[in-house]
Write a structure and sequence with these properties.
Largest sheet: 10 strands, mixed
Number of domains: 2
CATH class of the largest domain: Mainly Beta
Structural class: alpha+beta
CATH architecture of the largest domain: Roll
Number of helices: 12
Distance between the termini: 42 Å
CATH topology of the largest domain: PUA domain-like
Order of helices and strands: EEEHEEEEHHEEEEEHHHHHEEEHEHEHH
Radius of gyration: 23 Å
Number of strands: 17
Strand content: 25-35%
Length: about 400
């Protein structure tokens, strides 16, 4: 993924374009960072801002999207951005971080929950990610705190972690990337010079400030089936994580059904029950369950069947295995396939073209969901496997 590239020499007069790359200089120092020239902020840190904590004109959130312990993530299909705060090691209180990042998060969401007057105190938030090339930065979008699809008590959560035997808290925040394809240079200059933030603001952002209405930037996938490369981990570290799962169950593949069921629960929190069927009586289904759609008395339960395939990374799930799952789906039932490998191209195309209701959880999805639940490297994955699925205890 490349996209449009803005050279370092043009940054001072450039607008912000979604998914464009803003090049840094190539001198090999912190001064190479493009964000100071682009938005007049500092050249280091995940939180960068103009103004004081009590009078912010703009804020930049910079993420590398590669920290397994704190997995920031952008869901481009829904426009939801998950960002973890900057208290990432023990020794400080939740709001006592050096760059005041967690204090900023607290103030953003306090403003969100304070109604019309509070939203006017929330500055424009520009989200960038690293690219892996020098100090180049990709613009992910203009964000506001909260999300139209979640409840207030879940938009900013203090989560506990432990490191070297010490417990500490950090924030997990949910933002919405607004439907703004380009941020004008005129508005950026207004913000930098502390002029009226609404005078030349994008209409979607101004509407959120005035009414609280969210209009997220959503992007439906243009290619519905994923290639082999899109289903498999790209880095050696991620490959080692999935290899550890495969090795753990290689001699007892039926036990992987329990693991697949746990992974499905992590991925789909609205699963209310999921029972692993006996190998001799399962009729080809490794587990059957129900998922809740809706809340409270109005909710309905939808049945699904789960099939687990503990394969090596070079062994694909093919048409035969996929047909087996499809043939066992009853009316108004959907399927979940969990595999430590990938679904081959023909099988994946057929389920999409024929619109079979099947959720494919491949190797890369397993790695992602494990990271999001705190199992961020191969050692953590092995500990989780032993704790959850080794009935013999820690001896193995």
């Amino acid at each position: 993924m490349t996209g449009r590239i803005i050279p370092f020499a043009e940054l001072a007069r450039s607008p912000l374009i979604v998914d464009a790359i803003y090049q840094g200089d190539r001198r090999g120092s912190a001064a190479d960072d493009p964000l100071p020239r682009l938005l007049d902020v500092s050249n280091q840190g995940g939180f960068r801002y103009r103004g004081s904590l009590d009078n912010l004109s703009l804020v930049v959130l910079k993420t590398l999207l590669d920290d397994p312990d704190w997995p920031d993530a952008l869901d481009r299909e829904s426009g939801t951005f998950i960002y973890f705060g900057d208290n990432k090691s023990p020794g400080r209180g939740l709001h006592e971080t050096r760059r005041f990042g967690n204090e900023l998060l607290r103030r953003f969401f306090d403003g969100l929950h304070s109604g019309d007057s509070g939203r006017r105190l929330v500055p424009p938030i520009f989200v960038f990610s690293g690219t892996g090339e020098w100090r180049d930065a990709r613009f992910l979008g203009l964000a506001v705190p909260g999300n139209p699809d979640i409840q207030n008590f879940d938009d900013l959560v203090a989560v506990w972690r432990s490191s070297e035997g010490l417990r500490f808290q950090n924030y997990r925040a949910r933002f919405t990337i607004l439907d703004v394809a380009e941020v004008s240079r005129t508005w950026i200059d207004d913000l930098v010079q502390n002029r009226d933030p609404l005078a030349h603001a994008p209409g979607v952002w101004a509407d959120w400030v005035r009414t609280g209405r969210y209009r997220p930037l959503t992007a439906v996938r243009s290619i519905e089936h994923r290639s082999r490369a899109e289903q498999l981990p790209a880095s050696p570290e991620d490959s080692a994580m999935i290899a550890a799962v495969h090795a753990f169950f290689r001699e007892r593949p039926h036990d992987f059904e329990r693991c697949a069921s746990s992974l499905a629960r992590m991925l789909i929190p609205d699963i209310v029950d999921l029972d692993v069927t006996r190998p001799s009586r399962d009729g080809g289904r490794d587990a059957i369950g129900r998922m809740r759609i809706g809340r409270g008395p109005s909710a309905v339960l939808v049945d699904f069947a789960l099939e687990a395939k503990c394969y090596g990374l070079g062994n694909s799930v093919g048409v035969r295995e996929m047909s087996r799952l499809i043939s066992r789906l009853r009316h108004r039932q959907f399927g979940v396939l969990v595999t430590t490998s990938f679904v081959d191209g023909q099988a994946y195309r057929e389920i999409k073209e024929d619109q079979h209701p099947i959720v494919v959880v491949s190797a890369i999805d397993i790695v992602s969901v494990l990271k999001s639940h705190g199992h961020g490297d191969v050692d953590a994955v092995r500990r989780w496997l032993v704790a959850e699925f080794d009935d013999r205890g820690l001896e193995s």
